[in-house]
């Protein structure tokens, strides 16, 4: 018993001796907890502000700071003075070599928000370095990839079924043309280093190019027709079609020109054939261009109509050749098929895909050096995106589109707004994320 009482006495003495240290340690822990909590709140506030600003930047840096402070103040509520908030933006672009040096795949913009706040300590004890006030700071960097200049190839269905009426009393063709015009206006507003470009490659059973006008003034006829040529990209077999997909196509038919010395009968036949030709092949391609005004004018032309059957591969191969001919291409190459029905030969596209049509298109175009690519080819590699939008039509994957475009890039548009939305889905890949 005496030993137990002795040990209790020693323990009591030790407890009394350690009590001040324990109190100081408890006070220190409470202040550290307070500071850690305050720092977490400031850091969270900075992250929220940077995300909000990158999603909806204001007109000036002063407005950005004001907006960021409003957001920060909602999170930091126990500060003793105004929170010190700083906001700035830094861009990384191809033209200054930043993208190549950073190793990123595209130009980007960083929104940097830093916040600093002062707080009154729960417990203060100067002798133990427990200050009556303390300061915490946090910074957040949110990165958003900037829209890159893009080359868009609209592969349009100009078969007769596109003249059918859709929602709102407009034909499907009119809706598609107006939607493409709307998208081109959006592209014109893209704030990119270089201008984006657009092209229209159409198809019914064939593909048609137009250049200039054919005139006739003979035997009492005074006529003119657009100078059109209809091309067929199909060869003897599907394997030959793919093997020669970048070779000049076969001329199927064309608008005939008057030749001096023609007989009256020849001229009469020329008039009949040319009228029949332009009535059946009412469309034409619009080559890749950054002249949006000219593109929209040709797109809106009353001479751009639809007739006949459907052979989508002619439009796809025509677009592939257009992209292959292009020089100084943009880093994003986007091919978009807009169709309201299956091909007349529902198996031919699948046979072409099995022979490597889409694989060859992707590999050939992605291997082309784009206008930003470094000499070593190590940064800014050309990217190819392909998609198909069914215009009031559910595209069947088994028709070849599934293996060519992939399931995630097959869309079913129920109205014009869907067409617009899905086109932008394929063109835009703007993302914002916190920088690691």
What does this protein structure show overall?
- This protein has 436 residues and is of the alpha/beta class.
- Strands 9-5-4-10-11-12 form a 6-stranded mixed β-sheet, with helices on both faces. Strands 1-2-3-13 form a 4-stranded antiparallel β-sheet.
- A hairpin with a 2-residue loop joins strand 6 and strand 7 (221-232).
- The longest helix has 54 residues, at 2-55.
- The chain has helices at 2-55, 61-75, 98-102, 172-188, 238-243, 264-280, 292-299, 312-325, 348-354, 357-366, 401-405, 416-427; strands at residues 84-92, 108-120, 133-145, 150-157, 197-203, 207-218, 221-232, 250-254, 286-289, 332-339, 383-391, 410-413, 432-434.
Question: Which key features would you list for this structure?
Answer:
436 residues, alpha/beta, six-stranded mixed β-sheet, four-stranded antiparallel β-sheet, 13 strands, 25% strand
Query: First CA to last CA: what distance?
Result: 65 Å
- Major β-sheet annotation: 6 strands, mixed
| Averaged pLDDT | 85
Shape: elongated
Number of strands: 13
- Helix content range of the residues, please? 25-40%
Q: Extract low-pLDDT stretches.
A: 430-436
Could you give the order of strands across the largest sheet? 9-5-4-10-11-12
Specify the structural class.
Answer: alpha/beta
Radius of gyration: 34 Å
Total count of helical runs of at least 4 residues: 12
Strand share of the residues?
Answer: 15-25%
Order of helices and strands: HHEHEEEHEEEHEHEHHEHHEHEHE
């Amino acid at each position: 018993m005496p030993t137990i009482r002795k040990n209790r006495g020693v323990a009591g003495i030790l407890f009394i001796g350690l009590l001040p240290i324990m109190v100081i340690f408890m006070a220190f822990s409470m202040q550290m907890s307070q500071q850690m909590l305050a720092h977490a709140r400031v850091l969270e506030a900075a992250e929220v502000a940077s995300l909000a600003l990158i999603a909806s930047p204001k007109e000036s840096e002063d407005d950005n700071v004001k907006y960021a402070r409003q957001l920060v103040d909602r999170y930091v509520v126990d500060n003793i003075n105004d929170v010190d908030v700083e906001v700035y933006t830094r861009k990384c672009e191809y033209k200054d070599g930043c993208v190549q040096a950073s190793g990123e795949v595209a130009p980007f913009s960083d929104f940097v928000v830093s916040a600093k706040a002062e707080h009154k300590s729960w417990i203060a004890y100067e002798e133990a370095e427990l200050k009556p006030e303390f300061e915490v700071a946090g910074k957040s960097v949110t990165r958003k990839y900037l829209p890159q200049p893009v080359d868009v190839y609209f592969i349009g269905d100009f078969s007769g079924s596109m003249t059918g009426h859709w929602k709102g009393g407009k034909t499907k063709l009119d809706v598609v043309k107006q939607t493409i015009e709307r998208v081109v206006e959006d592209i014109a507003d893209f704030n990119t280093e270089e201008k984006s470009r657009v092209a229209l490659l159409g198809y019914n059973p064939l593909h048609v190019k137009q250049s200039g006008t054919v005139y006739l003034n003979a035997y009492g006829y005074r006529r003119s027709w657009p100078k059109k040529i209809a091309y067929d990209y199909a060869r003897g077999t599907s394997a030959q079609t793919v093997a020669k997909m970048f070779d000049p196509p076969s001329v199927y038919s064309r608008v005939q020109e008057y030749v001096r010395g023609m007989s009256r009968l020849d001229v009469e036949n020329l008039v009949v054939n040319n009228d029949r030709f332009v009535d059946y092949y009412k469309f034409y391609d619009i080559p890749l261009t950054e002249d949006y005004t000219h593109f929209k004018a040709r797109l809106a032309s009353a001479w751009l109509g639809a007739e006949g059957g459907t052979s989508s591969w002619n439009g796809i191969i025509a677009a592939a050749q257009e992209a292959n001919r292009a020089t100084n291409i943009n880093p994003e190459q986007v091919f978009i098929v807009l169709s309201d029905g299956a091909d007349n030969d529902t198996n031919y596209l699948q046979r072409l895909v099995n022979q490597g049509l889409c694989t060859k298109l992707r590999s050939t175009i992605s291997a082309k050096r784009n206008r930003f690519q470094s000499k070593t080819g190590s940064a800014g590699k050309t990217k190819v995106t392909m998609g198909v939008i069914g215009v009031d039509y559910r595209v069947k994957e088994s028709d070849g589109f599934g293996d060519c475009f992939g399931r995630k890039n097959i869309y079913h548009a129920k109205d014009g707004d869907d067409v617009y939305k899905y086109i932008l889905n394929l063109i835009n890949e703007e993302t914002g994320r916190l920088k690691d």
